[in-house]
Amino acid sequence: MLSFHEQRSRVVELLVDAGYLRNPRVIKALLTVPRELFIPEEMKKYAYHDTPLPIGWGQTISAIHMVAIMTEELDPEPGNKVLEVGTGSGYQAAVLAEIVAKQDTGGGHVYSIERISELASFARKNLEKAGYSEHVTVLVGDGTLGYKEAAPYDRVIVTAAAPDIPPPLLEQLGDPGVLVAPVGDQYFQRLLIVEKRNGRNIKRWGIECVFVPLIGKYGWSVEERWKN
Ligand code: SAM
């Protein structure tokens, strides 16, 4: 059986060949962050299968190609301050921290908000094991409200399905800045990419996707979740 390191290199190579990965910074980050440290023990052997995997509390770590595509669309740069909504396992936050805080001169930071406190603890432990805890602040709360205390952000990424972009996240996005979020109904979404430039928000649709729902003031209500 291939080592985790070999499996990681292989899946990144496949994503480059498929055209999902182009940005050298994102390629380097995906080659560096050990995804197996963000997966529950009993499923570690599937760490490099390119599918979402359950992480408990009805939530998932996104498929590797989805992390690749969202990170490419977000286009984070070394030194950036990033806000992530939906910490989950902490893997996406680690990929972002690898780029903004560890590549080149670093200096950037990732703030990541999770509504389920047990998952926030899981993510903190994973980030610690992988060596990113100094560069990622995991907060517990409703991420649709953003985190005003550290705004403005150079980049904002939402990793749960939103009915629309939560207004506080657009307000807390810096200028220039980029925001990426899956927007649609609770079953099917497309990535929405918003580029803020000279006071204008330029919107563009990306690929189709399926995420777990964003639950909160500017997301879905708990009662609406999975409603037909
Ligand atoms: N980025 C994660 C990773 O790398 O593992 C995967 C995120 S998972 C698909 C979506 C996460 O968003 C879940 O952990 C869920 O609890 C969280 N979530 C849903 N609504 C939220 C909200 N309003 N604020 C913060 N987190 C939320």
Distance between the termini: 44 Å
**Approximately how much beta-strand content do the residues carry?**
25-35%
Q: Would you tell me the structural class of the helices and strands?
A: alpha/beta
Element-by-element helix/strand order: HHEEHEHEHEEHEEE
**Compute the gyration radius: what is it?**
16 Å
- What summary fits the major beta sheet? 7 strands, mixed
Main-sheet strand order equals 5-4-3-6-7-8-9
Ligand roster: S-adenosylmethionine
Mean pLDDT: 96
- Helical stretch count? 6
Morphology call: globular
User: What is the helical fraction, as a range of percent?
Assistant: 25-40%
Count of extended strands: 9
What CATH calls the topology is Rossmann fold
- The appropriate CATH architecture is 3-Layer(aba) Sandwich
Number of individual domains: 1
CATH superfamily: Vaccinia Virus protein VP39
User: Poorly predicted ranges (pLDDT <50, ≥5 residues)?
Assistant: none
Any idea of the CATH class?
Alpha Beta
